[in-house]
């Protein structure tokens, strides 16, 4: 597998503009679709965290101000490198309108904001989905030669069916969700997507306004999955700096404005921290938006979600 080294962390805004241009050209002259993922990995060496952006991120997701990086922020830092893989001309799925399905992350040690960080990202596991085609984006973050964070994000290109991929049979119906007693409520305004875009650089049109979201098939704008994940992990993650892993699965979009009910439950014994689970839902419709967990990593580590 080849490695394409980038000079700096790409600007997400430029990647989205390029994706809009590619989409327009495709409508005029549809290209022969690629059906394989690019083999290249994209890498940025020795990148630096912007302290002002980190501070804005911590405030937005209600994370305590500290000199080490929130796990959600590390994803935000690495995500443009992963997105640059999706923006390649030989990437087989359209970048615009991708639906975020789930994340699995290992945060292997505290990361100080002054550390220069190297990011490497690639795509793998292209697969048929009953609603389209899904793909996994993997990002690794290193300080020097040490791996300090790794994340796997799964996205769905809804309505895109590649001929060579089989569509899985419809799975078992989800069990009815019975909302538990909430431990918190989040009130998200219509500007929640724009606010997160400003601190993350993720200006995906489905999050910015009802008008731009409707152009991509949504009934109105939706909250960023990583805003929801970053905020809940800031609340459910370890209170002390220790290696941990977390995972989240998104079930239904949070249409803005919204009130999200939240339940966080710690399964640890008194005095010991175990797995913390979390669930977010719409109290009025009783639809679950997301669920997941966070837990300390054992001495031997192990893949997230095992």
Explain what the structure shows.
The chain is of the alpha+beta class and 306 residues long. The protein has one domain: Thiol Ester Dehydrase, Chain A (Roll), CATH 3.10.129.10. It is built from six helices and eleven strands. Strands 1-2-4-5-6-3-8-11-10-9-7 form an eleven-stranded mixed β-sheet, covered by helices on one side. Helix 3 packs antiparallel against helix 6. The longest helix is centred in the first third of the chain and has 17 residues. The chain is globular, with a radius of gyration of 19 Å.
Name the shape in a single word. globular
Strand order of the largest sheet: 1-2-4-5-6-3-8-11-10-9-7
Helix count, DSSP H or I runs of 4 or more residues: 6
Average of the residue pLDDT scores: 88
Predict the CATH topology. Thiol Ester Dehydrase, Chain A
Structural class: alpha+beta
Distance between the termini: 27 Å
Strand content: 25-35%
Low-pLDDT runs of 5+ residues are 299-306
- CATH hierarchy: architecture: Roll
For the record, the count of structural domains works out to: 1
């Amino acid at each position: 597998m080849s490695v394409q080294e980038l000079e700096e962390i790409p600007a997400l805004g430029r990647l989205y503009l390029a994706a809009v241009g590619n989409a327009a050209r495709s409508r005029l002259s549809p290209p022969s679709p690629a059906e394989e993922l690019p083999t290249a990995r994209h890498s940025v060496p020795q990148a630096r965290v912007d302290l002002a952006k980190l501070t804005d991120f911590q405030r937005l997701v209600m994370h305590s101000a500290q000199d080490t990086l929130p796990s959600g922020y590390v994803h935000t830092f690495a995500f443009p490198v992963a997105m640059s893989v999706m923006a390649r001309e030989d990437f087989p799925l359209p970048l615009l309108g991708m639906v975020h399905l789930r994340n699995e992350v290992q945060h292997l040690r505290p990361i100080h904001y002054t550390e220069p960080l190297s990011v490497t990202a690639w795509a793998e596991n292209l697969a048929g989905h009953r609603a389209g085609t899904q793909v996994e984006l993997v990002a690794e973050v290193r300080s020097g030669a040490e791996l300090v964070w790794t994340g796997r994000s799964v996205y769905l290109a809804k309505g895109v069916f590649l001929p060579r991929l089989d569509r899985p049979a419809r799975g078992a119906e989800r069990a009815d969700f019975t909302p538990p007693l909430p431990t918190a409520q989040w009130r998200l305004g219509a500007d929640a997507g724009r606010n997160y875009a400003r601190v993350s650089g993720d200006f995906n049109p489905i999050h910015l306004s009802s008008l731009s979201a409707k152009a991509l098939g949504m009934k109105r704008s939706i909250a960023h999955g990583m805003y929801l994940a970053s905020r809940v992990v800031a609340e459910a993650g370890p209170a002390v700096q220790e290696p941990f892993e977390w995972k989240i699965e998104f079930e239904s979009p949070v249409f803005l404005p919204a009130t999200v009910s939240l339940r966080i439950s710690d399964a640890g014994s008194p005095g010991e921290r175990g797995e913390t689970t979390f669930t977010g839902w719409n109290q009025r419709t009783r639809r679950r938006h997301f669920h997941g967990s966070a837990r300390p990593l054992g001495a031997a580590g192990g893949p997230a979600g095992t």
